[in-house]
Every structure is written in C-alpha cells, then in structure tokens.
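Re: that backbone. Tokens:
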C-alpha cells in the first residue's frame, strides 16, 4: 500500500503521529526538539522536509514515514542548522538519493557541521562524538540556486525557493498545495533564533512570505504549530520594532547596550542574541567600508 489512504485505513499509529495540514501533506508530531518534519505524498514519490538531529531521530522519522507510504523518498533541508540536517546521512544510507537544499545551505553545512556537533551532545551523543553508523555530516547533493525548482511527486508538485536572507543566509521555502513550509524563518511557540541571522533582511523576507497569502493559507514554521498569514505579519512587526530599538541603543554609544534587553519584545536569551548579532553585522560593515 503506497498511497495516502494508508493513513486513514491502516494505521492508528500513523494517525496519531501525523497531523494533516493540507491535501497529501502532513507534519510529524513529537519529532523531538520541537521540529516540524513535513511529508508530502504524491503518487510517484514522497517528499520529507528536514531530517532531525542525528541518526536516532532520523530512524524514527523514516519509520513514521513508512507507516504512511512505501514510495521512494526525496529529502529537502530548510536550512543548515543541525536540527534540520543531521539526519541526512541516515536517510542517504536508507535509499534516499536526492537531498535538496539551497547551494549556500550545502556549503554552510560542509563548513560548520563539525562545529555544530557540540549542540547535540545531550540529544544524540553518538552524533555529537561522530561515533557509530550514519553520523557523518552529509550536505545536500541537489541544490536550488536563484530560480525556484519544481518537483513533481505525481498528482502534486512542490516548489522549492529562496526569498532572501533571514534566519540564516540559506533558508529554503517549500510550497505544497496551499501549504508553505517556512523553516525557521517563522517560529511559533518560541522566539525567532537570531544567532546566524540577518535581521534587516529577515524583515524583508517575512514581508515577501506574507505577500504570498493568495497562494498559501497554511504556514508551517520550523518549530511549533502551523499558523496563518496574520502570524507571519505579526512576527514581522515585532522584529521590526526589536531591530529599531536595538539600533537606537547601539547608536547611543554612551548607553550600555544590554540595557536595551528588558525593553525588547523577546525573552532575555534571544534579545541578547539579536543584540550581539546586530553588533557583529555592524562591525563587519564598518570593516568592509575601510573604516579601519
Ligand atoms: Zn534554525
């Protein structure tokens, strides 16, 4: 049984694990680390969106996918962070030939993957230590450059596209029917992650996502519950305010910048991350302009 009716008829487990968010489109509940693993099932192929923090989680993801479909799988990574890519090696070793991402995502994972291992020490010690099978860093082998890529899965096709820098410099969006998978460009249930972000560009990219509301009405964040376009717009406004407040604090050189933290609309950790990130980006600009 390889078509989507398997979800209705065959497995109560599958029903419990997968939440339907659109035609032929699901997200996995309780995938760990709060990530939304996406699944789009056509008549020819299935697409799995993001692969988890390592081989243990990837095995769980693959098992859950196999409760729904026996079709060949294509994988896509929304961006180069460990919780979205570290299961790649496991899936590649279990019959997945094509892993898609932006070209920059593949490049960044190759460059930073080894450093990112420390972040999974508690979640997947084997991945952290590069010990055991399928713990290699495995960047995408199929890349999206400037133009969108359409993948025909049979009766449904998905569109992979990049709208500009934001949460990282390599965020990929995946449109499937009326559902748009946004990766960590949109974050529900927690603050946006600013560590590798480009906040000014991120605001513009959120504006572009919100402008797609005639194409998509369900937006699946990288973490948390699916949202509507009004949530995306609210995240944009909140971020715009936060960036303004932080920049004012940075301009007032006599003021201790950390004083801006309590008035930012995020928790202390991500307020600090935003502040550090904007300061780092400002320094880069300053160096590049030849001021030093
Ligand atoms: Zn991320």
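Recovered sequence:
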């Amino acid at each position: 049984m390889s078509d989507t009716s398997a979800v209705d008829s065959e497995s109560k487990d599958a029903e419990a694990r997968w939440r339907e968010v659109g035609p032929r489109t699901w997200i996995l509940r309780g995938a760990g680390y709060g990530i939304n693993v996406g699944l789009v099932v056509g008549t020819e192929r299935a697409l799995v969106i993001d692969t988890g923090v390592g081989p243990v989680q990837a095995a769980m993801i693959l098992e859950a996918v196999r409760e729904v479909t026996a079709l060949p799988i294509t994988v896509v990574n929304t961006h180069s962070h460990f919780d979205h890519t570290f299961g790649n090696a496991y899936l590649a070793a279990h019959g997945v030939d094509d892993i898609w991402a932006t070209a920059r995502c593949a490049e960044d994972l190759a460059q930073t993957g080894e450093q990112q291992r420390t972040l999974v020490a508690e979640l997947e010690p084997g991945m952290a230590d590069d010990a055991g099978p399928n713990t290699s860093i495995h960047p995408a082998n199929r890349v999206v450059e400037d133009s969108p890529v359409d993948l025909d899965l049979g009766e449904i096709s998905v569109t992979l596209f990049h709208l500009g820098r934001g949460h990282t410099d390599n965020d990929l969006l995946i449109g499937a029917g009326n559902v748009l998978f946004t990766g960590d460009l949109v974050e529900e249930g927690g603050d946006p992650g600013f560590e590798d972000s480009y906040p000014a560009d991120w605001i513009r990219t959120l504006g572009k996502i919100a402008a797609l509301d005639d194409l998509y009405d369900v937006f699946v964040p990288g973490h948390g519950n699916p949202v509507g376009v009004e949530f995306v717009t609210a995240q944009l406004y909140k971020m715009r305010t936060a960036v303004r407040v932080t920049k004012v604090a940075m301009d007032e050189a006599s003021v201790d910048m950390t004083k801006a933290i309590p008035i930012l609309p995020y928790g202390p950790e991500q307020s600090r991350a935003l502040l550090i990130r904007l300061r780092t980006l400002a320094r880069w600009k300053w160096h590049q302009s030849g001021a030093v």
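The pocket of zinc ion is lined by residues 79, 81, 167, 184, 193, 222 (CB under 6 Å). Residues 102 and 144 are 5 Å apart (CA to CA).
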